[in-house]
Amino acid sequence: MSEYRVAIVGATGLVGQEFINVLEQRDFPMLSVKLLASDRSAGRKLFVRHQEIEVEETVPESFEGIDIALFSAGGDTSRHFAPIAAKAGAVVIDNSSAWRMEKAVPLVVPEINPEDCKWHKGIIANPNCSTIQMVVALYPLHKVNPIKRIIVDTYQSVSGVGGAAALEELTTQARQVLGGEPTVPHVFPHQIAFNVLPEIDVFLDNDYTKEEWKMLEETRKIMHADTIAVSATCVRVPVFIGHSEAVHVEFSHPMTPDEARQILARAPGVKVLDDNSVSLYPTAWQSARTDDVFVGRIRQDASHANGLAMWVVADNLRKGAALNAVQIAEEVIKQGCLSSGG
Prior knowledge:
Blueprint (H helix, E strand, L loop, with lengths): L3 E6 L4 H12 L4 E8 L7 E4 L2 E4 L1 E2 L10 E4 L3 H13 L3 E4 L28 E3 L3 H16 L2 E10 L7 H15 L31 H14 L5 E8 L6 E9 L5 H9 L4 E3 L11 H4 L5 E8 L6 E8 L3 H18 L7
Parallel strand pairs: 1-2, 1-6, 2-5, 6-7, 7-8, 9-10, 12-13
Antiparallel strand pairs: 3-4, 9-11, 11-14, 13-14
């Protein structure tokens, strides 16, 4: 088996460290790994396969000889360095929103549209975490009974923004509230401890947030379904890891909950947990550090004859970010489209 030279950009962040975990756990065929980050993080040392590796500052020369570059260092870094890495011969798999809606850049969830990897020009985009878990759960149903409309409300953990600083803010504020002390938000616009915030990313002119609009645009692109209507409300909740979603789906024709359960039970990357008699349904706590997209509370939508409602949960750092990116890399190798241009 061939082995590949891998670079991780943003290696010291939460997703960057999860890249390392996933590569190790899946025994990815790495000949070598280069850990890259900003100048502030350069010099730190991380363990990869029991070997201590020093983090280097990301510079244009960092990508010489690299086969696969996994990026999770923010949109500005990706816009600047991803084309440089691709020009140097690497296939970039980017976790930011910088390239997702570019027509010339594939947006891939391997369970859904792996064939899109073939037409990359050196950059493949990793979708938004909340979009990934929703489409993994819905696409198997869509193939059987085309979806016309999706209404989704998300309950997103703090690890989806701000990295370690967001986790620390939730921890600190929880202690302050329990101790009767005032809180001062830094990462979030308001106190996040014991609170929910219906604001993720910036507000757009149409009064949706950018996070909410991503779910519409990315779902259509991934599923190759430009006519699906999507409306999202994205909410930050005081949970460390794991995004949850209440999803209401209108199909072209009626579908029973049992039919949906049977389809999803056979779907790749999906695990059905749905037995109300024993309070069996997915939870964020349960999903943390796992790879599946969990689906439960599948029921008829009382508001529409062709509708179903369901509850979808996944680890946003793994399937919502690092795992999906590594799966894309595996797909690129499998399809033989490692070189830029496919």
